[in-house]
Amino acid sequence: MISIGIIWALILLFILQPGIAHDGAEAGARLFTHALLPYLLPYIILTQWLLKMPVKRKATNNWQRYMKAYILGSFGGFPVGAVTVAEMMKNGELSRRESGYLLAACHAPGPMFIVGFVGTELLGNPVAGWKLLTAIHIANLLFFLLAMTLLKKDQPENLSMQSIQLPKTSTSPFLASIKESSNVIILVATTVIFFSSLGTVLTTAIATAIPVDLGITKTALLAIFEMTSGVQSATDHFYSYASFPFLIAAIISFNGLSIHMQVFVIAKAVNIPLIPYIVSRLWCVFAVPLLLYFLM
């Protein structure tokens, strides 16, 4: 748990460097509006709309439910997977244990973000974006198959007991999806802007106090705090290196604290266990760059 002293230290750091904090927040806001919002919002609305549509009979076959979660959750960008799994758990389609494993497996950046922004704009080639997306999904599917094997060994839980009882309202599924999507978008914007600003301030403070390479320090810190800012910094400082695509793959696989906070907030709201998610992130940081190396 972060101590009160660290929080006060960060507050003082922001007060002492208001211009740097502003620049970091502004950069995070630009990245959110340019690289995330156009790709994320339409898919979140459609996914939420689909999940909130009343169905006469829910799927009872495990693989049907798991594939529904994977397809809807893994192709919409962060944190659509968490939103999808949480919604299916609310609807009684997934148990708590199933939700924990699926939260870990159904977690991937959207195709439009990887191919459109990372592939075309950062790597300079949409084909490279498709190869990166393929590597991400191979790693996720391997973890998904492992999760399904573990779940198969367990006795099925009573889904009706695991579902969260929500008050019934007369709101239409589309209006409900708009409301839920706006909450997710606000969460994403808040974390992206905050962690971009924090990473920028810490980078400047460290570079001022210690003689370090600014490019390496900035990229490392931003990659830890905010993925999109991290890949942008990596592009600015390491584009000419042969290892550049694999560095981008590692940063995207790690995700950064910004995305982790989004997932944690969504998962904790419905009490989904987080240990499988943490394990899957460690797996992907090593597996995705290696898979991309063989694909390229």
TrEMBL record:
It comes from the Bacteria. The chain crosses the membrane at residues 31-51, 100-120, 132-151, 184-210, 246-267, 274-295. Keywords: Membrane, Transmembrane, Transmembrane helix. The keyword Thylakoid does not apply. The keyword Transferase does not apply. This is Sporulation integral membrane protein YlbJ. It comes from Sporosarcina saromensis. The lineage of its organism: Bacteria, Bacillati, Bacillota, Bacilli, Bacillales.
